[in-house]
Design brief:
The chain has 169 residues and is an alpha/beta fold. It has one domain (8-166): Flavodoxin domain (Rossmann fold). It has helices spanning 20-33, 50-55, 72-85, 105-118, 136-140, 147-166; strands at residues 8-14, 38-44, 58-66, 69-70, 93-100, 121-122, 127-130.
Length: 169
């Protein structure tokens, strides 16, 4: 059986404390994984480093919004990787997934500012999924993301991978 060679790599980097963001990242990976010619690498923020960023052709960054900001471990990922890859990944596409209790826009803005410095190209607007968790108990509780939101993340992953495979980006 002849299989098409892997031509491109999509790196998905995520952090998840209560499981919501992980569900979204895995759904995106599943959608992207259906694309022939694209290898999907799904790494947690602490696992991912500059070599992973350099080896990828496109990126999907997924984080919860904590206290109106991206999660600290995602910030740590960007802190560790920013300068080692600066001026070496310009023009590559990216997308963002945010799992938020109410808004999510500030976490999306923070990532957008960072990747603007890297000169990455947005492949899609940030996908923000709102869990409506507003009490300490609800915020800290394990999350179960609705099927429709998981489909949206899966479609985002599929679209990013398809664009990558077709050379759109």
């Amino acid at each position: 059986m002849n299989q098409a060679p892997i031509l491109k790599t999509l790196l998905i980097v995520y952090h998840s404390l209560t499981g919501g963001t992980e569900q979204l990242a895995r759904a995106a990976a599943q959608g992207a994984g259906a694309e022939v010619g694209v290898q999907v690498r799904l790494l947690t923020a602490p696992q991912a480093g500059p070599d992973d960023v350099l080896a990828a052709d496109a990126y999907l960054f997924a984080t919860p919004e904590n206290l109106a900001a991206m999660a600290g471990l995602m910030k740590d990922f960007f802190d560790r990787c920013y300068y080692p890859v600066l001026e070496r990944i310009e023009g590559r596409p990216y997308a963002t997934l945010i799992c938020a209790g109410s808004d999510g826009s500030n976490a999306a803005r923070q990532i957008e500012r960072i990747v603007t410095g890297w000169r990455l190209k947005p492949a899609a607007p940030a996908l923000i999924v709102c869990t409506h968790a507003q009490t300490p108990e609800a915020i800290l509780a394990p999350k179960q993301i609705a099927a429709e939101e998981l489909r949206r993340a899966e479609e985002l992953g599929a679209a990013l991978a398809a664009g990558l495979a077709l050379g759109v980006f």
